[in-house]
Write a structure and sequence with these properties.
It contains 8 helices and 7 strands. The chain is of the alpha+beta class and about 190 residues long. The chain has 2 domains: about 110 residues, Beta Polymerase, domain 2 (2-Layer Sandwich), CATH 3.30.460.40; about 80 residues, no CATH class. The longest helix is centred in the last third of the chain and has 28 residues.
């Protein structure tokens, strides 16, 4: 674990030194807000030009909105700003967070929820049950501990998704809210 932390610290120092605009998203960003989230990689929003400024990172795959790279054995998933929602999160939902001996650009709670909800309809279409469970749990945990205004988040997300995906996401959020209410009722009845 120490070795991974050192690599992550070097990565963020590299991004800072190259003056690359980025925002940390995914599991490591979630650790800023909730405990117990495991992750095997780093997820970062950047623009495509930034990848050209990072020859230390070997790009192993790339498409329109995503790229995957390797930095000293550390897997990095890049969410590219060619996607309008990723650009929106990079511009509107960033907070400075302490990360060991440095400050990093991390997504806000709202930014993380936007990204997770945005991904869920696609994961359902792919039948990716394992990732669906992770993403839904991430959203539910953020909802439970931080009580964000989910209606406002859905409105903010709407310009970036289809009407069909909006309906699916509303159903997911409703289900998560019901689960949270059941948990709170059970907790309250134990007291």
């Amino acid at each position: 674990m120490e070795e991974i932390i050192e690599k992550v610290q070097r990565l963020f120092a590299l991004l800072r030194d190259r003056k690359i605009q980025y925002v940390l998203v995914g599991g490591i960003a979630l650790l800023q807000y909730i405990q117990g989230r495991n992750t095997e990689d780093i997820d970062v929003i950047v623009n495509l030009a930034a990848l050209k400024k990072l020859p230390e990172i070997t790009i192993t795959s790339k498409d329109v909105y995503f790229a995957r790279g390797n930095y000293q054995g550390l897997q990095i998933d890049f969410l590219l700003t060619k996607n309008p929602l990723f650009t929106h999160v990079l511009k509107c939902h960033v907070i400075q967070q302490p990360f060991f001996e440095q400050n990093i650009q991390s997504a806000t709670i709202r930014g993380l929820i936007l990204l997770k909800l945005y991904a869920l309809p696609s994961l359902y279409r792919q039948g990716n049950f394992a990732r669906i469970g992770l993403y839904e749990n991430d959203v539910a945990t953020l909802m439970f501990y931080h009580a964000p205004n989910m209606q406002e988040i859905l409105e903010e997300l709407s310009p970036f998704i289809s009407a069909q995906d909006r309906n699916a996401i509303e159903a997911i959020v409703s289900d998560l809210a019901q689960r949270i209410a059941r948990l709170k009722n059970l907790t309250d009845s134990k007291e």
